[in-house]
Design brief:
Low-confidence stretches: 28-32
Number of helices: 3
Structural class: alpha+beta
Distance between the termini: 18 Å
């Protein structure tokens, strides 16, 4: 069995440059309330970015860049090719649990709102309008209200990579940095093609942690 030798830790500030929407529970929606709220800590009511959302977005960015995904009659799913140059299965885990033979390398932390940015906890409401193409006007009852975290907010990003004795850590860092670039060019969260979720990873840095 190969040995775990050390960790690589990446840290940055996720700077929100256009309204960010990562959906939360709709169970508490009231009449006249927001149709699609953002995810929040159930105790503090402060929004955060789940580590699962970051991991999924980074993974998909690399799968699309390298064409590394699995096609079947249901569509295109997660990568299952362990030795693909994308390193997706090594970094994020194998989409087919039966084929996964080694530990997932990445550990994504939930990204909490940066201290001093508490004013962004309130969020903002954005009305989405469904248009009638013939009347050139909104459908009756077609509006919906989305909640977004306003531009200007910052979140604390942290990622750990397990490095085993046979791993190429430089390639791991390279792939993560490629994913960061793609997310910055595109978006994070939902409705990105409509202007949501433009983000920037500020002061991105690596640290080696010996064990």
């Amino acid at each position: 069995m190969i040995k775990l030798t050390h960790y690589l830790k990446a840290q940055a500030k996720i700077c929100v440059e256009s309204g960010l929407h990562i959906g939360g529970s709709k169970e508490s929606i009231k009449i006249g309330g927001i149709d699609n709220p953002v995810i929040r800590n159930p105790i503090t009511n402060i929004p955060f970015i789940p580590g699962s959302s970051l991991k999924g977005r980074f993974r998909m960015a690399l799968e699309v860049k390298y064409g590394d995904f699995t096609k079947n009659d249901k569509g295109s799913g997660p990568s299952e090719e362990t030795d693909h140059k994308s390193l997706v299965c090594k970094l994020f885990g194998n989409g087919n649990s039966k084929r996964g033979k080694e530990a997932t390398r990445t550990i994504f932390r939930d990204a909490n709102l940066t201290a001093g940015y508490e004013e962004y906890s309130l969020g903002e409401e954005k009305i989405e309008v469904k248009m009638d193409r013939t009347k050139m006007a909104g459908f009756q009852g077609g509006n919906r209200i989305q909640e977004r975290i306003a531009a200007g907010a910052k979140f604390d990003f942290e990622l750990l990579i397990r490095v085993f004795e046979t791993d190429n850590e430089d390639k791991f860092m390279e792939r993560i940095e490629e994913a960061v670039k793609i997310v910055e060019l595109e978006y994070l969260g939902g409705s990105g093609t409509r202007g949501y979720g433009k983000v920037r990873f500020e002061d991105f840095k690596w640290e080696k942690i010996e064990i």
